[in-house]
Structure formats: C-alpha cells, structure tokens
Design goal:
By secondary structure, this protein is mostly helical. The protein has a domain of about 45 residues. The protein contains three helices and no strands. The radius of gyration is 13 Å and the shape is globular. The model has no long low-confidence stretch (mean pLDDT about 90).
C-alpha cells in the first residue's frame, strides 16, 4: 500500500501544500510554514504538477475541460 506523495527529503504531503495554496497562501507563505523546503523546491513541485495536469486527457476527469 502506498502513502501520500511527499516532497522529496521530507514527510510533507504535496496535498498539504496544495491545500495551503487553495486557501490563498503564496509560495513564500508556504515557505514560511515549512522553512525546510526551499522556494525553488516549491516552484519545481508546482511546475511538475502543472505538467502532469497538462498531460491528462479531457475524458479522464469530469472536472477538467480542454
């Protein structure tokens, strides 16, 4: 069984970072909450997630539209 995806080298779930952003946090504010994560790492995580989302097919998720 697999656990939640975490940021490499930490035990911080990526979903926690996404939740904070959804709540209006900037990446700088997330960095203040988790000083062990560099701003560059946070930016890279967001870029990787955006890349993954861009590869989804329209029919893979009813909440996404092309």
């Amino acid at each position: 069984m697999r656990g939640a995806l975490v940021i490499t080298g930490t035990r911080i779930p990526i979903v926690r970072i996404l939740f904070l952003i959804k709540e209006g946090y900037t990446l700088e504010q997330v960095r203040e909450e988790y000083p062990q994560i560099s701003l560059v790492t946070l930016q890279n995580v967001m870029e990787e997630l955006a890349s993954k989302i861009n590869t989804l097919e329209k029919n893979d998720n009813p909440f996404l539209q092309a």
